[in-house]
Design brief:
The chain is mainly beta and 163 residues long. It has a single domain, classed as Umud Fragment, subunit A (Ribbon). It contains 2 helices and 12 strands. The chain is globular. The mean pLDDT is 87.
Length: 163
C-alpha cells in the first residue's frame, strides 16, 4: 500500500513538474478568450520539442517578480520589429491580423517601434486596455516562459481547447 502511494505521489510530482499544470486565470487581460477565475491546463512539455510561435497563449513568470505567473499572447518573436499605431499591431512594417481581438476591447494607444531581442518574446493581453504586458515592462525572457495554455476545464460550460 505504501509503495503504491509513493509511486502515485512520484508520478504526480513528475507530471506537474515536467508535463502539465493547472492554472487559474486572474484578471480580465485575456478576455474574451479567457475570463477571470477560469481554470486551464498548461502544457509544460511542448516547448522542449517545438519553438514558441506567434499567437501562442503562454504562461510565464512575471519579469519583475518571478514568484508571480502571468498569461498572455505572444505577438513578437526574436528579431521582429513591432509597433502599435492607434490600437493596431504592426509587425515588421505590416499590419498584423489579430482575429482573436474583439473590436470593443482594442484601445487607441500607440507604442513606438521596438525590435525584439534574441531569446526574448513580446507578449500582449487580448483585452489591451485591461492588460499589464510587454508595453509596460518589456519583453519576456524565453527561460521565463514555462508552458502553453491548451485547454479550459472550468467552468464546464466553456470547456474546450484554447487557441
Amino acid at each position: 500500500m505504501l509503495h503504491d502511494l509513493s509511486v502515485a505521489v512520484l508520478f504526480c510530482f513528475f507530471l506537474i513538474t515536467f508535463v502539465a499544470q493547472a492554472f487559474r486565470v486572474q484578471g480580465t487581460s485575456m478576455e474574451p478568450l479567457l475570463r477571470d477565475g477560469e481554470r486551464i491546463l498548461v502544457n509544460k512539455f511542448v516547448y522542449r520539442f517545438q519553438p514558441i510561435e506567434r499567437g501562442d497563449v503562454v504562461v510565464f513568470w512575471y519579469p519583475r517578480d518571478p514568484s508571480v505567473s502571468f498569461i498572455k499572447r505572444v505577438v513578437g518573436l526574436p528579431g521582429d520589429v513591432l509597433e502599435i499605431r492607434n490600437g493596431a499591431l504592426y509587425l515588421n512594417g505590416r499590419a498584423a491580423p489579430e482575429e482573436y481581438l474583439a473590436g470593443s476591447i482594442k484601445d487607441g494607444e500607440s507604442f513606438p517601434p521596438v525590435e525584439v531581442r534574441k531569446g526574448y518574446y513580446f507578449v500582449l493581453g487580448d483585452h489591451r486596455n485591461s492588460s499589464n504586458d510587454s508595453r509596460s515592462w518589456g519583453e519576456v525572457p524565453e527561460r521565463y516562459i514555462y508552458g502553453r495554455a491548451v485547454f479550459r476545464f472550468w467552468p464546464f460550460g466553456r470547456l474546450g481547447p484554447i487557441h
